[in-house]
Amino acid sequence: MKALMRTLLLVTVASLLALAGCGGPKGPVTVKFMSSDADLPAAWVEMFNKENPDQITIVRTEPDWAKTIAEAAAGNASDLLNMGQGTDIAYYQPRGILKDLTPYFKKSKVIKMDDIDLLGNREYQYDGKEFGKGPWYGLSKDYNNIGAITYNKEMFAAAGLPMLSETEPITYDELYELAQKLTKKDKSGTVTTWGYDLGSGWWNFLASDMAAMQGLSLYTDATRSVMNNDPAVRDIWKYWARWFAEGLIPNVLNPAPSWAGANFQSDRVAIVQLGYWYGAQLRTNPGFEAKYGWAPTPTVVKGGVRVTDTLGATGVVMYAKTKVPDQAFKVFEWYMGGAYGQERAKTGWGIPPLKSLIPLLPEENSFDKARKAIALDDAKYFQPWQASPWIPASAWTGAWNGPVESLTKGQITMDQFVDEYLASMNKLIADGKAQLGQ
Amino acid sequence: MSTATTRFSLERHKRTSFYLFLLPWIIGFLFMQVTPIIWGFLISLTNRSAFPIAVRFVGLKNYLELFRDKAVLGSYWVSFVYTIANTLIGVITGFLFALMLDRNLPGRGFFRTILYFPYMIPMVAVGWIFRIFLERDTGFLNIVLMRLGILESGIPFIQQSPMGSILILSFWQAGWSMIIFLGALSTVPRELYEVATIDGAGYGRRVRHIMLPLISPFIFFQLVMSFIYAMQAFIQPYILNPRPIRGNWLMTNTPPEETFFVMSRAYYIITSQNKFSYGLAMLWVLFAVVLLGTILFVKFGGFWVYTEAEERK
Amino acid sequence: MALTIHNRDRLSAAFRFVILIAIVLIFFLPLVSMFVTSLKRMDELYRVPARVFPEQALWKNYLEAWTLVRFGKYLVNSIILTLLYALPAIMSSCFAGYAFSRFQVRESRAVFLVVLSTMMVPAMVTIMPLYMIMAKLGFANQRILWFFWGLAGIPFIIFLFRQFFSTIPISFEESARMDGAGRFQIFFRIMFPLVQTGVIVAAIFAFQWSWSEFLMPVLFLTDEKSTLAVKIAMGYSDMKENVLYNIGMAGIVYYTLPIVIVFFSLQRRFVAGLLAGGLKG
Which CATH number fits domain A29-142+313-375: 3.40.190.10, 3.40.30.10, 3.30.70.270, 3.40.50.300? Predict the structure, then answer.
């Protein structure tokens, strides 16, 4: 009996100790900020916490929207949330996750309503049907012309190709030809250098631009519930699938070690479409000025209509049921227009959300000058990409990957690929609608 | 009369002891098994998603939808294929290893430890170790093969055969199977072999007629356990994923169709697509399949298992 | 006869020895790969043509594996959860094994089958609903869950303990009972000390399970309390969102080391225990 009591006691103590670890910090208010390390570096978090020792403490939580949704169901999601694409606001707002920040904006001294750059922040204003109208749910942390081209000048020179113009956009067909000339294979047919690469899933944003440039919609209806099966739109999807099928981009048969940004920096890829912000990463490599070049977002027709987009811009929103809205908004102000906001502008991670910060963008060297000029130029042609409000942006990639792999392996034809892709998308959209009871 | 009451109170004493000692397990069982299983089934009969919207009872709609969902059915199929392959590889490899280690051998203990050791390494670590090992351009295996002149350029192992890459793990971690078979082989009395040898039986006949029948219960046990275990494979497809991983968003990148096992897909459906009830229905069907499969196998597959009882006929 | 039995045995032993050495070498390759990669520079992982060994062994990676993700915090978390799981798991399984071995009542067999049947339940079938229940009640992020998971025991270990207890003669208990000892006294003073091998096997199993468990921490715990298993699985990445395979491998070395050490120091008793217990299966 004694031994039993001893065991029970031991177990109780152990669990009490464990439970004790559950207590939160007392004193200053904790604001939980869900963001990747890259978008909220530890050094800056420390600096903020040191400057506000008794008022606010920022705690960074891992970027995981799946967990956030689950936490929202229990009422304890993080207070500030880094959102990958502003267009996802259309998806999350009817699901009750987001807080209307308009009253805070009206009172804020750091974020003045007329200082907000509407071009890049359009997606963060949503009235339930359209972007650019209605309540404000957040701001982009910075926005970018994600279709801008960055290319490796040395590889161009080695292939005897002329440098690209920094003012005249090339066409998508020209881009394709360039990539064909720059892709290198070894004796056994394995690709060693790819001509082209881009962010995973970003072809959807560029496809949307291509459609807009031709006056087409990716959908058949105004509510964006069914994908457009028009031959002209199918051709747009086929254009992007061709990259994979012909191996000019890393695919399942010729995989690259990592994502586009890393591949480009290790000289495995000649051209990438990543955007203005990518320059901030490249600047840290020696010899960047001479090695890397910039060009504006391509068009469909030479000298024709230009449409570019920001993918909705990565930004920050606030959780609807946050218990510390005022403190969270203070952190939001610091992030957007305060010390850290200014720092991001100075290193050129994107065009800042507030117009007053634009002069801070770096332009000491030709590299920075070029990318800034191209970004501001491309910005004139921004239009929100044609997201469907029924699904988050991440769902598009899921529908694409399976069929494109079958296509690459030669198991299906191009037409079958488009059929499968559109069918998957339609199903996902229908599921999304059903979730909201429609 | 006193014996009857003593026996009765003895029985009661036994029963009290039985349940007293079983109490911790019962608590854990009720809390961690019974409640979630029943609750999960009930939820699978609704249309619940992650969002607190319009939860309705929909009966068996999720299950009917499952059986029409080509992607989900595909998951069951590839899980099944993987299970069969994993079981065969594990059992055969383990058996061969045990066979080699059964008789006297210098360094026997050393070999036994080394061959069992990979099984102890956690699956997430094993997954990453092999992801690095099999990579096309900078993976160890490819570099070595290229240096030896066997290959011209690297083979994208993971991309060409995601399933094969995962099955290599079955070979590497066959140590568990080996231990079971080592135990099994040690139950066979030596004399039987010796008598057979004297009677002129060669090695093959000794294996077929003495060894295999006598260890058949263990083979049976291994097959069942391996089946149950392999149907639940979950993390390997995410780590040995041919698609590139950006940052540390491991779980948002779906595995390719051919290795999108049932548990992996259910996880994706529940956490990324937020379709709670649909995912739970999927898991319940898996449960039923495993349960049914095991029962069927035990009832009808055991005919070749040799037991002592039969001998006494 | 061309070969005596003795010589044939020696030939077979030599043959087997050679094959086993080859297999062991092959088995070691992935581990060599892990170690070699952990010492490479980042760009050596991306550029072609690649070399087998790093130009210069970058031992700094081992330091960064520790500092980049605050390894210590997750290590402590893993240890806490492992203890929180292992103690009840071992005790509960031992109790249950004893119950099945010694106190045979009519329903013993049926209950034992229920215990075995829990092995057939795919982990997610119980974990996912638990996750939803916890989320709904707002109870996420509680370590106590591991304690209850431990109480549910490990079916195979329950089985093992039953076998072990069955080998102990009843006379031990009978004499104690005649001396007036209560059932728990008998258990803790006499029976429990006799199954130490079983306890070792159970401890290693419990440790390995909790150390490797990924699904539960990734669903239930926030980053503050998360475990090494999750951190290692998610990989190390830098500010440029490149996956740092080299530092990741160093992290894996750290992660695997505790299990390896525990296993190798106890392996003789562990394997002996497994073989002894498994025999009666």
Answer: 3.40.190.10
CB A46 within 8 A of CB A12: no
- What lies within 8 Å, CB to CB, of C107 at 6+ separation is none
**How far off is chain A from C140, nearest CA to CA, in Å?**
8
Domains of chain B: 64-301 (1.10.3720.10)
User: Of C196, C71, C225, which Cα lies nearest the Cα of A19?
Assistant: C225
Which of A192-196, B126-130, C233-237 has the weakest average pLDDT?
C233-237
DSSP letters for C16-47: HHHHHHHHHHHHHHHHHHHHHHHTS-GGGGTS
Contact between A287 and A67 (Cβ < 8 Å): no
Chains with 3+ CB–CB pairs under 8 A to B are A, C
| B86-121 per-position pLDDT tens digit | 999 999 999 999 988 887 788 888 888 889 989 989
ipTM reported for the complex, 2 dp: 0.88
Over residues C164-181, the pLDDT tens digits come to 888 888 888 888 878 877
Render pLDDT for A71-82 as a digit per residue (tens, 0 to 9). 777 677 899 999
**Which residues in chain B (243-302) have CB-CB distances under 8 A to chain C?**
245-248, 250-251, 263, 266-267, 270-271, 276, 279-280, 283-284, 286-287, 290-291, 294
Are C83 and A19 within 8 A, CB to CB? no
From the options 3.40.190.10, 3.90.1150.210, 3.40.50.170, 1.10.3720.10, give the CATH code of A149-307+390-435: 3.40.190.10
d(CA A44, CA A343) in angstroms, rounded, equals 10
Who's near C261: CB < 8 A, 6+ residues apart?
none
> Could you give phi then psi for residue B21, rounded to 5 degrees?
-70, -25
Nearest chain A residue (CA) to B271: A66
Q: Looking at CA atoms only, how far is residue A322 from chain C in angstroms?
A: 14
For the ranges A7-11, B83-87, B188-192, the lowest mean pLDDT is seen at A7-11
Binding-face residues of A in 73-92 toward B, CB within 8 A: 73
